[in-house]
C-alpha cells in the first residue's frame, strides 16, 4: 500500500469531492448496499452508483456492490475509516 499511496490518495480525493459518491463508497464498504440507512434522495445515490460503475471503481457482485480494487478498499478501511481489518 505504501508504493501506491499517492494513487490511492488522489483517487479518494476525486471520489470524496462529491458527497453522494463518498457516501456510496463508505456504505458499500460497510454493507455492500449503497441504499441502506440513507437520508439522501435515492436519485442522487443512483447517479453516484452509476458514475462509480462507469469509472470501473465498483462492480455488482449479484448480492450488492464491491470495490474493484481491494487495495483501494483497504486504504479506505485503514486510512479513512480507521479500521484494522
The computed structural class is mainly alpha
Q: How many distinct domains?
A: 1
Number of strands: 2
At CATH level 2, the architecture is: Orthogonal Bundle
Provide a concise account of the structure shown.
It is built from four helices and two strands, in the order H-H-H-E-E-H. It is mainly α and 85 residues long.
Can you give a write-up of this model?
The chain contains four helices and two strands. The mean pLDDT is 88. It has a single domain, classed as Arc Repressor Mutant, subunit A (Orthogonal Bundle). The longest helix has 13 residues, at 19-31. Strand 1 (58-60) and strand 2 (65-67) form a beta hairpin. It is globular. The chain has 85 residues and is mostly helical. The protein has helices spanning 5-16, 19-31, 42-54, 70-80, and strands spanning 58-60, 65-67. The chain has a two-stranded antiparallel ribbon with strand order 1-2.
List the helices and strands and how they pair.
Layout: H1 5-16, H2 19-31, H3 42-54, E1 58-60, E2 65-67, H4 70-80
Helix pairs in contact: 2-3
Entry keywords:
single chain; 85 residues; mainly alpha; Arc Repressor Mutant, subunit A; 4 helices; 58% helix
Amino acid at each position: 500500500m505504501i508504493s501506491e499511496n499517492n494513487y490511492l490518495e488522489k483517487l479518494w480525493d476525486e471520489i470524496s469531492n462529491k458527497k453522494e459518491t463518498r457516501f456510496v463508497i463508505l456504505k458499500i464498504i460497510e454493507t455492500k448496499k449503497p441504499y441502506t440507512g440513507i437520508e439522501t434522495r435515492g436519485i442522487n445515490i443512483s447517479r453516484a452508483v452509476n458514475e462509480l460503475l462507469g469509472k470501473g471503481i465498483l462492480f455488482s457482485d449479484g448480492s450488492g456492490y464491491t470495490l474493484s480494487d481491494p487495495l483501494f478498499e483497504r486504504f479506505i478501511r485503514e486510512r479513512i475509516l480507521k479500521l484494522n481489518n
